[in-house]
Amino acid sequence: MVKKKGRPRLKWSLKDKEIVARYQGQIGLFGNVICRICGRSFPLDIMEVDHIKPISQGGTDQPSNLQLLCPACNRKKSRKKTQRTKVTAYNPLDFRAPIIRI
User: Fold this and answer.
1) Distance CA 44, CA 19 (A)
2) Which of 14, 28, 45, 57 has its CA 20 to 30 A from that of 89?
3) Does the reported pTM lie above 0.85?
């Protein structure tokens, strides 16, 4: 794996995933990989590579900045990131909008 800044890789080979799993100590019994978030065991081929520090914030593709997550946990983590940065406009029909009393 080459130290790279810029855009994240879209496709990871099984060999790359194995390197990350060994580096992070995620290899479990029978050669399965343990998800960092939920702790469940999955086959290596369905695990997804996740950047601990995002590329956009100066992270790299080095094994020290990568972890393997199951697809469900990776989606939850991605969803949390987008909800945190999502800016919503004022909607007068939204009942959660603040009420101003005069």
Assistant:
1) 11
2) 57
3) no
